[in-house]
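@channel anyone free to eyeball this complex?
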Amino acid sequence: MNERERDEPLSFGKPDEVARMLGEVQDVDPPADLVGTVMARISSGAAARARRVEPVQFSGGKVMAKKVLWSVMGAAAAVLIVLKIAGYPPKSEGTEGTIGAAQRYQAQQISDADVKLTDAELQAFLQSDAFRKLIADKAVREALANKDVQKALSDPAIRAALASDDVRKALSDEQVRHALADERVRRALADEQIRKALANDEARKLISGDAVKKALSSEDARKAIANEQARFLLANDQVRFLLANDASHRVLTSDVMAQALAARSFADMLASPALIGMLSAPGAADMLASPALIGMLSAPGFAQALAAPGFSAAMAAADAAAGARTN
Amino acid sequence: MYTPNESDETLVGRCLAGDQAAFEGIVVRYQRGLFNVALRLLGSYEDARDCTQTAFVKAYEHLDTFDASQRFVSWIYRILRNECLNALRARRPSEPVSLEWAAAGIPSDSLMAFERNRAVQSALLGLTADYREVIVLRHFTELSYDDIAVTLGIPVKTVKSRLYSARQRLGEVLAEWRVER
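replying in thread with the prediction:
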């Protein structure tokens, strides 16, 4: 470097020059042990949390362990639910005639299944760390309280399909859910050849534009299409029917659907009757988009817990407890 | 275990289900970006290292509060930014900051490049925190204007106007800079 260079101020005065110069600044490598240190801190923190029972300070000055409080609230909710189902407390004499019918109805609800809320497997699941994380998400809580969602997620085919990011993403889309609720769409997508053709980018491109209208009405126009997969789709009666409908046309030619179709378990999921209930359940979209669900799909005990008769009541109790904590 | 093509959402979901190892995928993915942002915001290698580590640990501990409707990248940068602001508040005004790390990756015979790097960092540290953070997030990360807006909790419009003013101010500071003899 000569003397002049060292004396000259660098001309960084203009904003665009500043931007250019900032772009020339190189990244600095992070410390080599950063990943290891973070993971070690996380591990030691997790171990410490497992040993420690965090106290919760109440305004009155009493201290109660968080886990104990949670257990007590859960147990209290379970007892209240069982008592409610059993019709306790009994009504005073003289009122039987007015609410007899209601009492009979309630009595019919009592079964061994109802008291399975204390089933060891369900209890173990409810007390697991994974469940605690799960119920932190209100949308998941609400959706899981729905019987149709429970039934759907109890189906291994649906759980396997939902393990795919692309399938969850597709099912989070309202238009896709609406389309899949249509039996004709499901029937068409159950056909492997149709799925394969729809997953073909060029074929989708050819049938996604306005040109498809001409191809739908003219056999000659269909035959003139060079792409074999597109020709196959347009030669299929049920596909042509769906493509003629704007909504199903949009969904069948969408990228999000094409990506979902590539998941191996997608077709198996379509064959499950339980799917329909889940697609229309309130909160399903939020649940499908929730990261909390992903891990739960393969969590031990999740399917058994869903099938347990007391699961809905437990979810409702958890919801109430969460509401009480936030109030 | 994790694979590089697993999405942030998948890794977060696995962590939430108790699979701690999945978080390593997140740390590996974001360590470079977070560390460099911390370094530019704080100017100190040691402080940047500490804040980056703490940001990751806090992210893990509060993973269940992550709103899935937001992008994970904005969320984790927001945690880091808060951590850096805390570190800046706790720093004594007279505390000297060594910029020797600015020579990292620069050939030893390229004095000019080193000095320029050091000048940029000095100029960044001369900006107010709100100007500095918007410059750093825009020029030292891949974040979009939308992501920066979420990270800083301000409207996109404000991000753009603040960025313009910050660049002008940075230009003024750098224009005064001369290579030291």
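from a first look: Chain B has a mean pLDDT of 85.
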